[in-house]
Amino acid sequence: MKPEQKNIHIQYTVHKRNGESISEKLPIMKAAEDTVKNAYAPYSGFKVGAAVLLEDGRIVSGSNQENAAYPSGLCAERVALFTAASHFPDKKIETIAVAAEDRNGNPTPVTPCGSCRQVMLEYETKQHQPIEILLAGPDQTILQFNGTEALLPMGFKTSQLK
Length: 162
Fold this sequence. Notes:
The chain is α+β, with helices and mostly antiparallel strands. 22% of the residues lie in helices and 23% in strands. It has a single domain, classed as Cytidine Deaminase, domain 2, CATH 3.40.140.10. A hairpin with a 4-residue loop joins strand 2 and strand 3.
């Protein structure tokens, strides 16, 4: 019997920054881009900023923090998510925006690493709703994902621990 092959379909939306469809999301994207400047990345030179929008409209930011003793540093996405969760534990996370710069200070598109995706999935599970993900894309675009499933198909969920 021949094995059955399956496919995973990933859907996202590409917005132009000057487009009306994304205009209300620009403040959180700008917060992520502004936070890039707070990154501590003396080893990689790769600076990342993230901003989390909470259900009450509050924005919490974080930047990557490297350490000479790898892997003691932490990604911007997890800094922002953990800060939001520790200071506002009862507020749902609606959106996370991510921006980055290369070692020359040029904006560069980036997607969250696997660990950050797993943490986002955990918060989605905890709050019983997806987190919108906005990524600074190429050529002044913003990539919009409706939930972590698009970035982490078949992610490890708490239900698998039972």
